[in-house]
């Protein structure tokens, strides 16, 4: 059975969810420029939870592949209708709650010395300030890293520094996820 935007569903996370939107067709992020570009297979839905597994209001958001999204059973749908009828404000409160679902791109590095972390952070803060302001793709991110003093440490083990790029609410432009934020982690 197919599902569509606005449907009430169940997914990998417990509770009753509504399909808010489908992420536009996009490429998977690449971790090496030499890797072949591949389109994400299937539909990725952004979901918002109305009720938890105990049928209590619990707004949350998540992303789920179409194969992980199932329509409600007739019994669940009937129980949902009763819940909504018994609480006339629950749906209004739910609709007014906005929580984006962000996509993350984590790129790990094995720095030669732990003391290199401060330099690592300074270099990449400067290198990514303009690209992220304009919106960066995974490919443009990899090109900036390739020009850095830390390029040879990307993907090496053991990882002790991570660049985490954030695509707010799965922003897509020209079939690419667009990243506008950078976080640093010491792992």
List keywords for this structure.
elongated; five-stranded antiparallel sheet; 2 domains; 25% helix; alpha+beta; three-stranded antiparallel sheet
Notes on the protein architecture:
By secondary structure, the chain is α+β, with helices and mostly antiparallel strands. It has two domains: 89 residues; 83 residues, no CATH class. It is 25% helix and 28% strand. It contains four helices and ten strands. The strands form three sheets. The chain has a five-stranded antiparallel sheet, covered by helices on one side. Strands 6-7-10 form a three-stranded antiparallel sheet, with helices on one face. Strands 8-9 form a two-stranded antiparallel sheet. Strand 8 and strand 9 form a beta hairpin. It is elongated, with a radius of gyration of 20 Å.
Helix-strand sequence: EEEEEHHEHHEEEE
Helix content estimate? 25-40%
Counting DSSP H or I runs of 4 or more residues, the number of helices is 4
Low-confidence stretches: none
Largest sheet entry: 5 strands, antiparallel
């Amino acid at each position: 059975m197919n599902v569509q935007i606005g449907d009430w569903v169940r997914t990998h996370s417990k509770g009753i969810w509504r399909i808010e939107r489908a992420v536009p067709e996009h490429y998977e992020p690449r971790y090496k420029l030499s890797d072949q570009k591949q389109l994400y297979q299937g539909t990725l839905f952004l979901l918002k939870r109305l009720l938890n597994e105990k049928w209590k209001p619990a707004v949350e958001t998540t992303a789920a592949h179409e194969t992980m999204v199932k329509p409600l059973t007739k019994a669940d749908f009937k129980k949902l209708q009763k819940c909504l009828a018994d609480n006339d404000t629950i749906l209004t409160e739910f609709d007014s709650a906005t929580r984006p679902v962000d996509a993350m791109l984590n790129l790990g590095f094995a720095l030669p010395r732990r003391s290199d972390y401060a330099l690592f952070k300074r270099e990449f803060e400067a290198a990514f300030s303009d690209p992220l302001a304009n919106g960066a793709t995974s490919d443009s991110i990899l090109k900036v890293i390739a020009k850095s003093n830390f390029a040879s440490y990307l993907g090496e083990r053991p990882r002790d520094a991570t660049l985490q790029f954030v695509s707010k609410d799965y922003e897509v432009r020209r079939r690419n996820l667009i990243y506008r934020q950078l976080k640093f982690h010491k792992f």
